[in-house]
């Protein structure tokens, strides 16, 4: 005080202003009482401000032993840091003492103390903490109560969540970082981050839940707009209703939470990540953090829901929803699946085969869930008339063919897109329907497609033909297993029960579809009959051609008869010559049959 008066060089100075004094008038009053020997009560609520004020007023040991700096430092080290509740209160009071509290290591020491106690064994906890009511269906943040563990009461592992969530974001980051260093489970860290976000970001609080306690939230319900996903979101930086200071505070909270998310998969839910991503896009968070958050969503994309995936477009895009964002999330999911499937085995050699089979089954199930999610998303966004055919096709074809065992969801999305875009040309409709496999449609979808006037005629024919092939294959399989007419009865009964279970809209159009199927059956039988006739004619022509073209092979009997005929002719000539030379001689006729008989 003497130095300030001396440096002012004002002889008539009667008033001194200490605007930079940390702790304000309350801390100065306590320091003045200490100087005059008046007893003061040190507590967790005033110790941090008094410690910083003593440092500002230079109340060191050089002037007198046991000065205020020594007294406050001893109280911090031996009283505050040994208590859970006092450490929280002191760290909370340091929010108005920057940068003095940071330079005096008060923030660091309180964060280390909180982290050490949070990582302690819950069975050894004997101090008081703020806890939520156990197992409440819809907890409200206003129904908190002070609780101290008793002998019969078991301390839950998340006992420290509520106390830590009252801290400012920078101090919360310091505490979570210290807890990570001490080896806390990543599931608990993720759960504490989710609770903090639900308390400080009103966009992540579901309907029916109260806001945070007094002073813990910088925003109110004004300016929030209802969303079909059941969440209240505050559009910051878009209109004049939300102040820019609030938008900056929320942006800082979102960026800090993204930076301290655990790297392990399933540390937080995919629904929380998508809602955080939605708010990050709305608040114009740094692109690097948004990319990192998109990769985290892609790691567990199979856990997403349609309500969380319907993220509006905040980049002045033509479409109502951010289609490009979902496309990037799907690409990250595919890359993650490929990386997991191609990664080398981390298991013993004897377990490699079993692990590979289970891993393939898990990946296939995840792809099937994502395929159903994408089909539902396409059905929802296809109502947007500004959605281009290319974006729809690219998103529908992003997953491999093995991801879909049934294309009913994709057919619904295509039909919805055709309803919203009636001006598509024939070529564009064929291009749209090319993403669907007609052989993967169910009976209900086939009956609906058979009477759908929006589909191209060629697609309708393919659907009817695929249904006919399915019926023929089913009948053939049954006939191969059981060769009897009585075995066809279950198929008829199943068919009737299937038709009775179909919706009324499909049954109304079954008559027209049945006529088309009967016509195709008749044409198919006609083609089969003509084919058989042509086959028989061809076989007859082939046999005639073989008879004409193939030379006759002489058998051994034919060769013998030819030799006998030659020998007979020679004998007759010699006999004729002898008879002509000796006309009077008695001619002995030679019966040829004896030769034949002897030969035979």
UniProtKB/TrEMBL annotation:
<comment type="similarity">
    <text>Belongs to the NPH3 family.</text>
</comment>
<dbReference type="InterPro" id="IPR011333">
    <property type="entry name" value="SKP1/BTB/POZ_sf"/>
</dbReference>
<protein>
    <submittedName>
        <fullName>26S proteasome regulatory subunit 6B</fullName>
    </submittedName>
</protein>
<feature type="compositionally biased region" description="Polar residues">
    <location>
        <begin position="575"/>
        <end position="587"/>
    </location>
</feature>
<dbReference type="GO" id="GO:0000502">
    <property type="term" value="C:proteasome complex"/>
</dbReference>
<comment type="pathway">
    <text>Protein modification; protein ubiquitination.</text>
</comment>
<feature type="coiled-coil region">
    <location>
        <begin position="517"/>
        <end position="544"/>
    </location>
</feature>
<keyword id="KW-0175">Coiled coil</keyword>
<feature type="domain" description="NPH3">
    <location>
        <begin position="158"/>
        <end position="470"/>
    </location>
</feature>
<dbReference type="Pfam" id="PF03000">
    <property type="entry name" value="NPH3"/>
</dbReference>
<feature type="compositionally biased region" description="Basic residues">
    <location>
        <begin position="591"/>
        <end position="600"/>
    </location>
</feature>
<feature type="region of interest" description="Disordered">
    <location>
        <begin position="575"/>
        <end position="600"/>
    </location>
</feature>
<dbReference type="InterPro" id="IPR027356">
    <property type="entry name" value="NPH3_dom"/>
</dbReference>
<keyword id="KW-0647">Proteasome</keyword>
<keyword id="KW-0833">Ubl conjugation pathway</keyword>
<dbReference type="InterPro" id="IPR043454">
    <property type="entry name" value="NPH3/RPT2-like"/>
</dbReference>
């Amino acid at each position: 005080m003497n130095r300030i008066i001396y440096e002012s060089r004002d002889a008539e100075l009667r008033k001194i202003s200490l605007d930079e004094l940390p702790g304000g008038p309350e801390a100065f009053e306590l320091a003045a009482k200490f100087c005059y020997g008046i007893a003061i009560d040190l507590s967790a609520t005033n110790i941090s401000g008094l410690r910083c004020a003593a440092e500002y007023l230079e109340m060191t040991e050089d002037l007198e032993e046991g000065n205020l700096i020594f007294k406050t430092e001893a109280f911090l080290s031996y009283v505050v840091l040994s208590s859970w509740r006092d450490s929280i209160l002191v760290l909370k009071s340091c929010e108005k003492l920057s940068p003095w509290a940071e330079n005096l290591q008060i923030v660091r020491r309180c964060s280390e103390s909180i982290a050490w106690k949070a990582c302690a064994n819950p069975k050894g906890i004997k101090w008081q903490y703020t806890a939520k009511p156990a197992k409440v269906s819809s907890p409200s943040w206003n129904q908190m109560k002070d609780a101290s563990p008793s002998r019969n009461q078991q301390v839950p592992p998340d006992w420290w969540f509520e106390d830590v969530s009252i801290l400012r974001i920078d101090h919360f980051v310091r505490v979570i970082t210290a807890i990570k260093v001490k080896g806390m489970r990543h599931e608990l860290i993720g759960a504490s981050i989710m609770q903090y976000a639900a308390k400080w970001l009103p966009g992540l609080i579901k309907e029916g839940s109260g806001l945070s306690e007094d002073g813990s939230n910088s925003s109110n319900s004004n300016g929030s707009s209802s969303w079909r996903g059941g969440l209240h979101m505050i559009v910051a930086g878009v209109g004049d209703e939300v102040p820019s200071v609030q938008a900056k505070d929320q942006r800082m909270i979102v960026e800090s939470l993204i930076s301290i998310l655990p790297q392990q998969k399933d540390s937080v839910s995919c629904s929380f990540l998508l809602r955080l991503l939605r708010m990050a896009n709305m608040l114009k968070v740094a692109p690097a953090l948004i990319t990192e958050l998109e990769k985290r969503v892609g790691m567990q994309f199979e856990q997403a829901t349609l309500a969380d995936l319907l993220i509006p477009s905040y980049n002045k895009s033509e479409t109502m929803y951010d289609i490009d964002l979902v496309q990037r999330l799907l690409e990250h999911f595919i890359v993650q699946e490929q990386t997991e499937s191609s990664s080398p085995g981390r298991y013993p050699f004897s377990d490699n085969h079993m692990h590979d089979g289970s891993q393939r089954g898990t990946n296939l199930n995840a792809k099937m869930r994502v395929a159903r999610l994408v089909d539902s998303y396409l059905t929802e966004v296809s109502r947007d008339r500004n959605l281009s055919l290319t974006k729809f096709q690219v998103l529908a074809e992003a997953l491999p063919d093995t991801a879909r065992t049934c294309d009913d969801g994709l057919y619904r999305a295509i039909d919805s897109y055709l309803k919203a875009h009636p001006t598509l040309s024939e070529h564009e409709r064929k291009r749209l329907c090319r993403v669907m496999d007609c052989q993967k449609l169910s009976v209900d979808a086939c009956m609906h497609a058979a009477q759908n006037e929006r589909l191209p005629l060629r697609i309708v024919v393919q659907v009817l033909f695929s249904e006919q092939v399915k019926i023929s294959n089913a009948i053939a399989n049954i006939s191969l297993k059981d060769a009897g007419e009585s075995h066809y009865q279950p198929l008829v009964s199943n068919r009737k029960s299937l038709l009775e279970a179909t919706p009324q809209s499909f049954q109304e159009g079954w008559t027209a579809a049945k006529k088309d199927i009967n016509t195709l059956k008749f044409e198919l039988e006609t083609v089969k009959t003509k084919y058989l006739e042509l086959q028989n004619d061809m076989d007859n022509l082939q046999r005639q051609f073989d008879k004409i073209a193939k030379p006759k092979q002489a058998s051994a009997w034919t060769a013998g008869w030819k030799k006998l005929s030659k020998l007979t002719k020679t004998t007759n000539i010699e006999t004729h010559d002898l008879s002509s030379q000796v006309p009077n001689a008695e001619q002995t006729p030679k019966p040829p049959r004896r030769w034949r008989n002897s030969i035979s």
